[in-house]
Here is the input.
Amino acid sequence: MNTLSTGMKTYRYPTREQWAEIVARPRLDLARLNETVATVLNDVRQRGDEAVREYEQKFDKASLQSLAVSEQEMDEAETLVSNELRDAIILAHHNIKVFHISQRFVGQKVKTQEGVNCWQKSVAIERVGLYIPGGTAPLFSTVLMLATPAKIAGCREIVLCTPPSPEGKVNPAILVAARIAGVSKIYKIGGVQAIGAMAYGTQSVPKVYKIFGPGNQYVMAAKQQVSIDEVAIDMPAGPSEVCVLADATARAEFVAADLLSQAEHGIDSQVLLITTSEQKLIEVQAELDRQLQQLPRKEIARQALENSRCVLVASTDEMMALSNAYAPEHLVIQTADYEQMAERVVNAGSVFLGPYACESAGDYASGTNHTLPTHGYATAYNGVNLDSYCRKITFQHLTAEGVRHIGHAVELMAEAEQLDAHKNAMTVRLREINNN
Here is the structure.
């Protein structure tokens, strides 16, 4: 192993024993982090708006009279966003809407026995909360990714929280995207205090039933804490990451651009290059050096690259096995046989195939959702989709004939579990049916 000039660690033909080190994510002191988060959450739970305003002053340097964004501010935002950007937002919203509409659930009645019919109905979560990061990069694209499927699902109330500037303003593109996507209420609240406000409810912010949205490790910890006993969450979404698989046919310029597109998110982001070509590794490193110098956020990207890895492996089989062990948020496959490689993907949030499917396309406008599992959670979680905003309620209807078919089995099973009232609920029905 050696370290490249960008700070990325390079592994050449690593053994399986080294894989754990390669796929490890950067970590904070979680004990201190969770303690800090719990303090803020408890304060918001007890003091509501007053605590939120204090934390906004402390963390976002914003002195707020009202936490809610007004209609006047929404209208003002429309004048501050160029027609060109507005058109781009509308195009992206259209593609996201088309893709997510295709995910609508169609239930069907199933006869499990004569006289026994079962089915499911999809019902929208009535009130959802969306967290939109501000910080160093206000993610108005995330508004589209979270609010569009919520609207399609039929969520009655869509609440959005996002950090304000020190002047108490929300990025105008966030407000324009929110209006286009159909957000109900918008609040100038960031970080842990935003998660607490939506989880517990305050004098201004309604309590929601499920919270969506990415964020830093503090936001992720806050979401996990409130999910224990207060609300549901989409997933543990934390710092962004990408894994690029590249063979000798990949274009180094494209590979480096994809790696840097994630590295610029934040200093705790991570990127991973896995290649079967020594020459490609050298070419990509040269491109990383060149492109990094041109980025306005190069210092952020440079620090993220220090968390990152380049790995040279012997075969495409090993390449895919290592990727599946990493379980990346974003997986870019730039190989000659990308279609065959795609069939072997087991763990990934979203996959980008071929030389032209850059990760940025999915981040903004292809139509897929960019709110995805990070930190290896792609082994068990999927990204946000239409189902994320719905619950499946099951129904069953039994006729007398249905009771005759399954009644005795129910009695036997309930008796074996020593649940006599369960048994009796079926016994009284069987008795009536047999007496008629």
The mean pLDDT is 95. The CA atoms of residues 196 and 429 lie 48 Å apart. The two ends are 81 Å apart (CA to CA).
